[in-house]
Amino acid sequence: MVFSCSQILFLGPLMQLSMDCPCDLADGLKVVLAPRSWARCLTDMRWLRNQVIAPLTEELVFRACMLPMLAPCMGLGPAVFTCPLFFGVAHFHHIIEQLRFRQSSVGNIFLSAAFQFSYTAVFGAYTAFLFIRTGHLIGPVLCHSFCNYMGFPAVCAALEHPQRRPLLAGYALGVGLFLLLLQPLTDPKLYGSLPLCVLLERAGDSEAPLCS
Which residue ranges does UniProt annotate as crossing the membrane (predicted)? Predict the structure, then answer.
């Protein structure tokens, strides 16, 4: 159910992919489900890094390990917004890679890094919220992998798309449904115990609005 939140949010980009895809749904499913396609992915180190290793290790470090340490010290709410700052800074290594291979001008590289820091910090707050609400790491990991695959929504391309009206309606509908369904789909009662909430209660902090 947590994974479906991200899919709902990306309703517009998913519609955009389907509109621009040259093959129909049946052919696309054949390609996705083919053993040869999966074997090719599993031997691609970049795919493994982006879809498996990075989501698992980053969620383990920044959500499962860092959040439980920060929450008793500063409270649950501040921890949700502080932890993603470290997560955003952790992506600055891309600056070194881009400078080394001279992929763009120095100004553009640092501007891109600032933009990436902004949306990775927002995404980090979102997955921290998921981890706190559900008490499980699998949801944030799956969402992380899915968002790595989708990338940042191509809003500019959507504005210039031949089918921009239904496409923009899909973008708006996705955001609206995401905001409407986020709380119900992450209801703590659906997922059992909440480690961070229990930790805060033991630390004497009775206010845990994200858990209610």
Answer: 76-96, 108-132, 138-159, 166-185
Catalytically active residues are 58, 91
Paired tokens of 149: 């695959």
Domain count, the chain: 1
Can you give the pLDDT at residue 59? Answer: 94
d(CA 126, CA 192): 20
- Distance of alpha carbon 49 from alpha carbon 55, whole angstroms: 8
For 31-70, give the secondary structure using H, E and C: HHHCHHHHHHHHCCHHHHHHHHHHHHHHHHHHHHHHHHHH
pTM of the model: 0.83
Report which DSSP code applies to 149.
Answer: H
pLDDT at 95: 74
Range of the domain at 181: 2-211
d(C-alpha 136, C-alpha 101), whole Å: 39
Alpha-carbon dihedral 77, 79, 84, 90, rounded to 10 degrees:
180
* DSSP label of 97: H
At a CB cut-off of 8 Å and minimum separation 6, what does 66 contact? 83, 86
d(CA 173, CA 161): 17
Q: What is the 3-state secondary structure (H, E, C) of 106-126?
A: HHHHHHHHHHHHHHHHHHHHH
Q: Which of 132, 181, 195 is nearest to 1 (CA)?
A: 181
Q: Average pLDDT for consecutive 10-residue bins of the chain (212 residues)?
A: 82 88 59 63 85 94 89 84 87 72 74 85 92 88 92 89 92 95 87 67 60 69
